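User: For a reading group we're discussing how well predicted structures match intuition. Take ATP synthase subunit delta. Before you show the prediction, I'll give you the sequence so everyone sees exactly what went in.
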Amino acid sequence: MAELSTLARPYARAAFEFAQEQGDLAGWEAMLNQAAAVAQEDVVVKLFSSPSLPSDQIAKQFIELLDSELSDKGQNFVSTLAANKRLGLLPEIAALFAVMKANIERAVDVNVKSAFELTDDITAKLESALATNLDRQVRVTSEVDQSLIGGVVIRAGDTIIDGSVRGRLAKLAEAMNS
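Assistant: Thanks. Here is the predicted 3D structure of ATP synthase subunit delta, as C-alpha coordinates, for the group to look at:
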Protein backbone atom coordinates (compact mmCIF):
# COMPACT_ATOMS: atom_id res chain seq x y z
CA MET A 1 0.00 0.00 0.00
CA ALA A 2 2.78 2.43 0.92
CA GLU A 3 4.50 1.65 -2.36
CA LEU A 4 1.37 2.52 -4.34
CA SER A 5 1.07 5.80 -2.43
CA THR A 6 4.68 6.61 -3.19
CA LEU A 7 4.17 5.99 -6.90
CA ALA A 8 0.83 7.81 -7.04
CA ARG A 9 1.77 10.88 -4.97
CA PRO A 10 3.58 12.86 -7.73
CA TYR A 11 0.69 12.35 -10.14
CA ALA A 12 -1.90 13.27 -7.51
CA ARG A 13 0.09 16.36 -6.56
CA ALA A 14 0.43 17.44 -10.20
CA ALA A 15 -3.29 16.98 -10.81
CA PHE A 16 -4.11 18.80 -7.58
CA GLU A 17 -1.85 21.76 -8.33
CA PHE A 18 -3.25 22.07 -11.84
CA ALA A 19 -6.85 21.83 -10.61
CA GLN A 20 -6.14 24.40 -7.92
CA GLU A 21 -4.64 26.81 -10.48
CA GLN A 22 -7.72 26.35 -12.67
CA GLY A 23 -10.08 26.74 -9.70
CA ASP A 24 -11.69 23.39 -10.46
CA LEU A 25 -10.90 21.12 -7.52
CA ALA A 26 -14.41 19.68 -7.41
CA GLY A 27 -14.43 18.96 -11.15
CA TRP A 28 -11.08 17.21 -11.05
CA GLU A 29 -12.06 15.24 -7.96
CA ALA A 30 -15.21 14.00 -9.72
CA MET A 31 -13.26 13.21 -12.87
CA LEU A 32 -10.56 11.27 -10.97
CA ASN A 33 -13.16 9.39 -8.94
CA GLN A 34 -14.97 8.33 -12.11
CA ALA A 35 -11.72 7.29 -13.78
CA ALA A 36 -10.67 5.37 -10.66
CA ALA A 37 -13.99 3.51 -10.56
CA VAL A 38 -13.68 2.49 -14.20
CA ALA A 39 -10.00 1.55 -13.71
CA GLN A 40 -10.98 -1.05 -11.10
CA GLU A 41 -13.24 -3.02 -13.44
CA ASP A 42 -11.82 -6.45 -14.34
CA VAL A 43 -11.98 -5.82 -18.09
CA VAL A 44 -10.10 -2.54 -17.70
CA VAL A 45 -7.46 -4.09 -15.43
CA LYS A 46 -6.82 -6.65 -18.18
CA LEU A 47 -6.60 -3.83 -20.74
CA PHE A 48 -3.96 -2.05 -18.62
CA SER A 49 -1.82 -5.18 -18.38
CA SER A 50 -2.08 -6.13 -22.05
CA PRO A 51 1.46 -6.50 -23.40
CA SER A 52 0.30 -6.49 -27.01
CA LEU A 53 -1.16 -2.97 -26.96
CA PRO A 54 0.99 0.15 -27.00
CA SER A 55 0.38 2.66 -24.22
CA ASP A 56 -1.21 5.24 -26.52
CA GLN A 57 -3.77 2.65 -27.69
CA ILE A 58 -4.55 1.71 -24.07
CA ALA A 59 -5.02 5.39 -23.21
CA LYS A 60 -7.28 5.89 -26.23
CA GLN A 61 -9.50 2.93 -25.30
CA PHE A 62 -9.67 4.02 -21.65
CA ILE A 63 -10.61 7.58 -22.65
CA GLU A 64 -13.33 6.17 -24.92
CA LEU A 65 -14.71 4.19 -21.98
CA LEU A 66 -14.99 7.35 -19.93
CA ASP A 67 -16.74 9.09 -22.82
CA SER A 68 -17.57 12.67 -21.78
CA GLU A 69 -16.40 12.29 -18.17
CA LEU A 70 -12.91 13.59 -18.97
CA SER A 71 -12.03 17.13 -19.97
CA ASP A 72 -9.27 17.73 -22.51
CA LYS A 73 -6.77 18.20 -19.69
CA GLY A 74 -8.09 15.06 -18.01
CA GLN A 75 -7.51 13.16 -21.24
CA ASN A 76 -3.94 14.50 -21.32
CA PHE A 77 -3.49 13.34 -17.72
CA VAL A 78 -4.74 9.84 -18.60
CA SER A 79 -2.42 9.75 -21.63
CA THR A 80 0.54 10.70 -19.41
CA LEU A 81 -0.39 7.97 -16.94
CA ALA A 82 -0.64 5.45 -19.77
CA ALA A 83 2.71 6.49 -21.25
CA ASN A 84 4.31 5.87 -17.85
CA LYS A 85 2.33 2.63 -17.32
CA ARG A 86 0.61 4.11 -14.26
CA LEU A 87 -3.09 3.86 -15.17
CA GLY A 88 -3.51 1.19 -12.49
CA LEU A 89 -2.68 3.86 -9.89
CA LEU A 90 -5.84 5.86 -10.63
CA PRO A 91 -7.69 4.69 -7.47
CA GLU A 92 -4.74 5.69 -5.29
CA ILE A 93 -4.31 8.99 -7.17
CA ALA A 94 -8.00 9.80 -6.63
CA ALA A 95 -7.72 9.00 -2.92
CA LEU A 96 -4.62 11.17 -2.47
CA PHE A 97 -6.27 13.98 -4.44
CA ALA A 98 -9.30 13.82 -2.12
CA VAL A 99 -7.04 14.05 0.95
CA MET A 100 -5.23 17.08 -0.49
CA LYS A 101 -8.55 18.75 -1.29
CA ALA A 102 -9.87 18.06 2.21
CA ASN A 103 -6.71 19.55 3.74
CA ILE A 104 -7.13 22.74 1.72
CA GLU A 105 -10.80 22.96 2.64
CA ARG A 106 -9.97 22.20 6.30
CA ALA A 107 -12.46 19.36 6.23
CA VAL A 108 -12.26 15.72 7.20
CA ASP A 109 -14.49 12.73 6.63
CA VAL A 110 -15.06 10.79 9.83
CA ASN A 111 -16.39 7.25 9.92
CA VAL A 112 -18.01 6.15 13.17
CA LYS A 113 -18.65 2.45 13.76
CA SER A 114 -20.89 1.63 16.68
CA ALA A 115 -22.55 -1.46 18.04
CA PHE A 116 -25.96 0.21 17.70
CA GLU A 117 -27.55 2.83 15.45
CA LEU A 118 -26.58 6.36 16.58
CA THR A 119 -29.35 8.89 17.10
CA ASP A 120 -29.22 12.22 15.27
CA ASP A 121 -28.63 14.01 18.59
CA ILE A 122 -25.61 11.86 19.46
CA THR A 123 -24.23 12.19 15.92
CA ALA A 124 -24.53 16.00 16.12
CA LYS A 125 -22.76 16.10 19.51
CA LEU A 126 -20.03 13.82 18.22
CA GLU A 127 -19.62 15.94 15.10
CA SER A 128 -19.33 19.10 17.20
CA ALA A 129 -16.78 17.58 19.58
CA LEU A 130 -14.68 16.20 16.73
CA ALA A 131 -14.78 19.52 14.87
CA THR A 132 -13.44 21.24 17.98
CA ASN A 133 -10.72 18.66 18.64
CA LEU A 134 -9.60 18.27 15.02
CA ASP A 135 -9.98 21.99 14.22
CA ARG A 136 -11.67 21.10 10.95
CA GLN A 137 -15.09 20.89 9.40
CA VAL A 138 -16.28 17.33 10.04
CA ARG A 139 -18.49 15.16 7.84
CA VAL A 140 -19.67 12.16 9.85
CA THR A 141 -20.84 8.88 8.39
CA SER A 142 -21.89 6.12 10.71
CA GLU A 143 -22.31 2.39 10.38
CA VAL A 144 -23.37 -0.40 12.69
CA ASP A 145 -20.93 -3.19 13.59
CA GLN A 146 -22.48 -5.43 16.22
CA SER A 147 -19.18 -7.24 16.76
CA LEU A 148 -17.98 -4.17 18.70
CA ILE A 149 -20.29 -5.25 21.57
CA GLY A 150 -20.55 -1.64 22.78
CA GLY A 151 -18.87 1.76 22.33
CA VAL A 152 -17.57 3.24 19.08
CA VAL A 153 -14.58 3.22 16.77
CA ILE A 154 -13.90 6.62 15.20
CA ARG A 155 -11.74 6.85 12.09
CA ALA A 156 -10.68 10.31 10.87
CA GLY A 157 -8.00 9.98 8.21
CA ASP A 158 -5.01 8.32 9.88
CA THR A 159 -6.41 8.88 13.38
CA ILE A 160 -8.31 6.01 14.96
CA ILE A 161 -10.02 6.25 18.32
CA ASP A 162 -11.10 2.83 19.56
CA GLY A 163 -13.58 3.19 22.38
CA SER A 164 -15.26 -0.13 21.74
CA VAL A 165 -15.72 -2.93 24.25
CA ARG A 166 -14.07 -5.31 21.78
CA GLY A 167 -11.02 -3.03 21.56
CA ARG A 168 -10.75 -2.72 25.32
CA LEU A 169 -11.02 -6.49 25.74
CA ALA A 170 -8.26 -6.96 23.15
CA LYS A 171 -6.00 -4.52 25.06
CA LEU A 172 -6.73 -6.33 28.33
CA ALA A 173 -5.91 -9.70 26.75
CA GLU A 174 -2.67 -8.28 25.34
CA ALA A 175 -1.68 -6.88 28.74
CA MET A 176 -2.39 -10.20 30.43
CA ASN A 177 -0.34 -12.12 27.88
CA SER A 178 2.76 -9.93 28.19
